[in-house]
Specification:
heterodimer, A: mainly alpha, 7 helices, about 65% helix, B: about 65% helix, globular
Chain lengths: ~200, ~425
């Protein structure tokens, strides 16, 4: 019996779920159902990442995209809604416009995907590399573990880890956090009488 | 396991399917039976705390079968649905909660190597997946088309989203001490006496555990943080409109996440399957090459781990029946003004402590700084060895970083070549 390539089977399964629910997001007019379908579609995408051996990216996908949609749903929809079940009606013109934009993007992506030689189906699939977050973490701390495999000494000298970008990004995020907390704080009403300076 | 079954089942895929089914079957039953036991335990504990007896009739003197009788009652109850409800979301919501709770069990190891899916980022995965449980709750509250449900859902959303931040910070501290996010490796690093547990590693991890426990109680929506179902204000919160089997699925999910959260605490802080006393090590069972002895040692470890989980859950019950429910503003104050700064300070403290004193708190008994580093290197090496494309990266990256940079041929002449051959 010809061995079934289970990797492909699960890839197709997850891809079908992701695409199917992505279409369902478009088709439904109820906003909360849209968010629900979007969550399912994004979760199937994280399944694709797990299938590809990228555990860290998969877990990130769940944490950020799926969890982010959740927060979006709560604060974007439920806090602004006036009635119980909000619906969105799309006009025919919007459908046509959306179909043109989406279809042309799909055409570009498809032609790009089929033209890259390295992406065409290989005769033999490579083994799935086992993932490790430790190497990622050490890279962020400035130690490139894959440096030792590099043969060319000049290229190896350039592999210096990502400590500085990591620090810049984290300080940036900290600034954003503090700034948002500052902007969202309850405003103290400065009561300043005449001749008195408000603090 | 699939590799083992492959020897006996003729088409290769059948072995994988069988292995997956066995894992799924074991975990579903663990979740269901543990919920059965914990609901009974909850009744008994609450009874004792309130100076009552709790269930005494069904199943003998201690009322063992009370939950089973309840379950039969719930299954036979009519499955009601409000006329105004969003039908599909209303019907799907309990299962979403259950699925996320169940998915977290996939990455939770029960003993050394006894895990359905050994993920390199297991800690992160569990925290991410547990955060999704709230999605089912929110959908339930929204789809019920009832104001009590919606209020409960919004409270739950605000609470869980806020408490995820300190929870994440607390989880990072043991990960930082261990140097890996793989729960199996984290458990292995704490073997030996109980002083090797990460909770006793330094004062900061000790503090972190209590913050973790508070945040975990809040994130699984247990009293005193059960605002989403505050009976005195919101009838029953998000599950007001549910009855029968769907209602009980919410409770399966809740008890399932309590188990996961306690299990995570047991592995991250309390040594996982490594007991307070290393009895299996003293008996020489743990490292044994005899598969039967190894199996027995692992089984004892699993009992140990489950015992710790049960202890954690009992502790949550004790808290539930002791403390009054907080108000929503008090919940937010607890999170943002207390848990968050304490977690942040513990994190910074643990960083400094691990840098200065890698051996931990009790230095005379534990000259293990180097040993732990060796274990970390082993873990990296182990992970790298499994990586087929990068088999020649094997030299331990921390120590020999400088040497490798200086002498170029080292990268090619180190012993990795032989290792690659075995792959």
């Amino acid at each position: 019996m010809e061995p079934i390539n289970w990797h492909s089977v699960f890839f197709l399964l997850f891809a079908l779920v992701a695409c199917g629910f992505a279409l369902a997001v478009l088709m439904t007019s109820n906003i909360v159902r849209m968010a629900f379908y979007l969550v399912l579609s994004l979760a199937a995408t994280s399944g694709l990442f797990f299938l590809a051996g990228a555990d860290f990216v998969g877990a990130m996908q769940i944490m950020i995209y799926v969890g982010g949609t959740l927060v979006l749903l709560i604060f974007g929809v439920m806090l602004t809604a006036k009635g119980p079940f909000i619906t969105m009606r799309t006009k025919a013109g919007e459908w046509i416009l959306g179909a043109i934009v989406g279809g042309s993007l799909l055409a570009v992506l498809l032609s790009a995907a089929t033209s890259v030689r390295a992406w065409q189906p290989a005769a033999q699939l490579p083994r799935v590399a086992q993932p490790t977050a430790t190497r990622l973490g050490m890279g962020l701390l400035g130690v490139r573990v894959d440096k030792l495999a590099e043969q060319d000494p000049t290229r190896r000298a350039g592999m210096s880890g990502y400590l500085l970008p990591f620090e810049i990004v984290s300080v940036h995020l900290l600034v954003v956090l503090i700034g948002s907390a500052y902007l969202a704080r309850p405003k103290k009403r400065a009561v300043a009488g005449p001749g008195e300076t408000a603090r | 396991m699939a590799e083992y079954l492959k020897q006996y089942l003729s088409p290769e895929w059948l072995a994988y399917v069988a292995a997956a089914l066995v894992h799924a079957f074991l975990l579903v039953n663990l979740l269901a039976i543990s919920a059965l036991v914990f609901i009974w335990l909850e009744r008994k504990v609450s009874g004792r705390i309130q100076d009552r007896l709790g269930p005494t009739r069904i199943g003998g003197k201690f009322g063992w079968l009370q939950t089973l009788a309840d379950a039969i009652k719930l299954v036979t109850k009519e499955d009601l649905r409000p006329a105004a409800a969003d039908r599909m979301l209303f019907l799907a919501a309990p299962y979403i909660s259950f699925c996320s709770s169940y998915a977290a069990f996939m990455a939770l190891p029960f003993a050394d190597g006894w895990v359905a899916m050994r993920l390199n980022v297991a800690v992160f995965f569990i925290v991410a997946v547990l955060g999704l449980e709230v999605f089912g709750v929110i959908l339930a509250g929204y789809a019920s088309a009832s104001k009590w449900s919606l209020f409960g859902a919004m409270r739950e959303a605000a609470q869980v989203v806020s408490y995820e931040v300190p929870l994440g910070l607390c989880v990072v501290v043991p990960v930082l001490v261990a140097g890996t996010m793989d729960l199996v490796s984290i458990g292995q690093m704490q073997k030996g006496l109980f002083i090797n547990w990460f909770v006793f590693h330094d004062p900061f991890t000790f503090v972190t555990f209590w913050v973790y426990f508070t945040c975990a109680t809040a994130s699984v929506n247990r009293a005193p943080f059960d605002l989403a179902e505050a009976e005195s204000e919101l009838v029953a919160g998000f599950h007001t409109e549910y009855s029968g089997f769907r209602w009980s699925v919410f409770f399966l999910a809740e008890y399932g996440s309590m188990f996961v959260v306690s299990g995570l605490a047991a592995i991250l802080f309390f040594g996982g399957w490594n007991g307070p006393l290393p009895i299996t090590h003293w008996l020489g069972m743990a490292g044994s090459t005899n598969p039967l002895v190894h199996y027995v040692a692992n089984f004892l470890g699993m009992l140990n781990f489950v015992g710790k989980c049960v202890f954690g859950i009992t502790f949550m019950m004790w808290v539930r029946w002791t403390l009054p429910r907080l108000r929503i503003d008090q919940v937010m104050t607890t999170c943002l003004k207390y848990c968050m700064p304490i977690a942040a300070v513990s994190f910074a403290g643990a960083v400094v402590w691990t840098y200065l004193l890698p051996g931990g708190l009790i230095i005379p008994f534990r000259p293990y700084g180097n040993e732990r580093e060796a274990q970390l290197l082993d873990a990296i090496e182990d992970a790298t060895r499994r990586d087929d494309t990068a088999a020649n990266l094997l030299p331990s990256p921390i120590k020999r970083e400088g040497e490798a940079g200086n002498s170029d041929p080292l990268a090619n002449t180190n012993p990795s070549g032989g290792r690659r051959g075995t792959d």
